[in-house]
Every structure is written in C-alpha cells, then in structure tokens.
C-alpha cells in the first residue's frame, strides 16, 4: 500500500487533487471528515474539548458547534495550538487505523489522505509521498467567498492561522500548482501518479 498525503492551505485545491487521484483508483481519507466524526463519537475527545473550551461549543444534542469553536481559536494562536494538540493525535490514530483495516482486507493500491494540517500534526513521516497543493492567495480567497460560509475577514484569519506554503515546502515531495485550470491540475496529478506507480 502506498500512502499519499495531500496538504495545502485553505481553498488551495486539495479536494480537486483527491478527486483526480480517486479517478486513478486511490482510496481517499479526508481528515476534516474524520475530525467531525470524532467530535461526534469520541467521548474522551469531547470531554477534553469541553474542559478546555467550555460546554457551549456543543449543543444540547452533543453536536459540536464548529462556528463557536472557530470563533474561539482562529483569532487566538494559543487556543488554536491547544485545539490541535488535543485533536491531532486522535486524527492520526484514526488515519493509521483505517489504513491498517484496508491493508488487512488485502488492498494494496494507493491511499490518499487530505490533511491540511499534516505538518502541524506531525504526520508527514507517516506517508510515502507528500503532495503540496498551492494556489495564489487571491485565488484562494475568491474560492472561499464563492463557496460561502465565511466572510473575507474570517478567510484571512484562517490563512494567517495556517503555515505558509514556504514553510510547508521542505516537507513536500511534489508541488501541484492549482492556480490555473482543472485540466492543468489534472495533467500534473496524472504525471505524478504515473511516476509513483512505476
């Protein structure tokens, strides 16, 4: 089994790269989706989050209010680091567990893991290949605004809270520039996939 990490900043194009790898038969793990599942099902994690950030981050049904949590952490680097220190080990364990399950089932293809906070989580060494997806900041902001859900101020706060591409670069085996067309990105992904499979 080959394990590929897809990392990059907000709206850089990690989903597109994952979709393109899926077309090549890769199985995909999205760490954001995993985190949401853990917030819902992992009682030890929920307890630790409540201890750190207060019970108001969960509603009466025990569902995480991501907006409230984001408001608490994205403008406060200390709180953001604390959140990551709590959540990242759980995510890393869940990713490795899923890979082990697929391997035991006999899957020997590629697994691509979308991990925006790969470096911050200390997970880069868990992978055979790290793909860094980049796009210029203006393009990323426009993509976020088109998706909706965040104001321009919130988008810039998230960009500022993440590592820059320059700091991610030393961990990357390959860089995919997703500033242009989907076809251009597809060509880059196809070339990388052919290289890693031969």
Describe it:
This protein has a five-stranded parallel sheet with strand order 2-3-1-4-5, sandwiched between helices. It is α/β, with parallel strands linked by helices and 198 residues long. It is 55% helix and 13% strand.
Write a brief caption for the model.
Catalyzes the phosphorylation of the 3'-hydroxyl group of dephosphocoenzyme A to form coenzyme A. The chain has 198 residues and is an alpha/beta fold. It is built from nine helices and five strands; from the N terminus they run E-H-E-H-H-H-H-E-E-H-H-H-E-H.
The largest beta-sheet arranges its strands as 2-3-1-4-5
Identify the quaternary structure here.
single chain
CATH superfamily: P-loop containing nucleotide triphosphate hydrolases
In the CATH hierarchy, the architecture is 3-Layer(aba) Sandwich
| Largest sheet properties | 5 strands, parallel
Q: Please identify the top-level CATH class.
A: Alpha Beta
Number of domains: 1
Helix content percent band: 40-55%
Range of strand content: 5-15%
- The whole-number mean of residue pLDDT values reads 95
Low-confidence stretches: none
Question: What is the radius of gyration?
Answer: 17 Å
Q: Label the structural class.
A: alpha/beta
Q: Cα distance, first to last residue?
A: 14 Å
User: What is the N-to-C succession of helices and strands?
Assistant: EHEHHHHEEHHHEH
User: Looking at the structure, what is the overall shape?
Assistant: globular
CATH fold name: Rossmann fold
Q: How many E strands?
A: 5
Number of distinct helices: 9
Function: Catalyzes the phosphorylation of the 3'-hydroxyl group of dephosphocoenzyme A to form coenzyme A.
GO molecular function, one term: dephospho-CoA kinase activity
Pathway: Cofactor biosynthesis; coenzyme A biosynthesis; CoA from (R)-pantothenate: step 5/5
Keywords: ATP-binding, Coenzyme A biosynthesis, Cytoplasm, Kinase, Nucleotide-binding, Transferase
């Amino acid at each position: 089994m080959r394990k590929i990490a897809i990392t990059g900043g907000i709206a850089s194009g990690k989903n597109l790269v994952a979709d393109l790898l899926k077309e090549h038969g890769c199985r995909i793990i999205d760490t954001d989706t995993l985190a949401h599942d853990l917030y819902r099902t992992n009682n030890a994690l929920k307890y630790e989050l409540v201890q750190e950030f207060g019970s108001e981050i969960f509603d009466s049904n025990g569902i995480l209010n991501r907006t409230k949590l984001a408001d608490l952490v994205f403008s406060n680097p200390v709180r953001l680091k604390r959140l990551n220190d709590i959540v990242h080990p759980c995510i890393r364990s869940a990713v490795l567990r899923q890979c082990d399950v697929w391997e035991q089932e006999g899957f020997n293809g590629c697994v691509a893991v979308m991990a925006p906070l790969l470096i911050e989580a200390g997970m880069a060494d868990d992978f055979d290949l790290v793909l860094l997806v980049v796009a210029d900041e203006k393009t990323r902001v426009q993509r976020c605004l088109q998706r909706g859900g965040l104001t321009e101020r919130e988008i810039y706060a998230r960009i500022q809270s993440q590592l820059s591409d320059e700091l991610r670069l030393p961990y990357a085996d390959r860089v995919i520039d997703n500033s242009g067309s989907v076809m251009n990105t597809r060509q880059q992904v196809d070339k990388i996939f052919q290289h890693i499979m031969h």
